[in-house]
From TrEMBL:
Name of the molecule in the record: Cytochrome c-type biogenesis protein
One Gene Ontology cellular component annotation held by this UniProt entry: plasma membrane
Gene name of the record: ccmH_1
Species of the source: Yersinia thracica
Domain of life, per lineage: Bacteria
Signal peptide interval: 1-23
Amino acid sequence: MRLFSLALGLILSWGILATNAFAAIDTYTFSSVEQEQQYRELTEQLRCPKCQNNSIADSNATIAADMRGKVYELMQQGNSKPQIIDYMVARYGNFVTYEPPVTPATLILWIGPAMFVLIGAIIVVLRARRRVEKETALSPQEQQRLQTLLAEQKATVKKQISAQHKKTNRKKP
């Protein structure tokens, strides 16, 4: 019974390892180094629809593997880089490119950040102007009242200082 359990465990573990080992390996043969470089560039430029933050070159998702296979197939058929990107955009939408084109649908995405900065700058300028307008000069009566208050405050402070000075002088023998 123990031997049977051990054999079953080995078979199952080998099966899991074998499927994991074969699942993520893409092997393609290219006719030139330039073609291989173009394949790498294309797979780095196209976004995985499932992962969203990864390119299809970095993703292990099934759809990314299918997309890599389709890129290879289209390259073998002689399609150019723009043709392959256009094919992927037609099939999966503008989302598959990291730099979506400027269209009426995406215009708000391109203009939105600039509009927020512009509106923010306008608000700052308007608020600064209001503050300048609020800071008006004092009338002659207000200036006289201010001078009187300052003089009274100055006299009060002098009295407090002299009283404090007298206290400290009395304590010394």
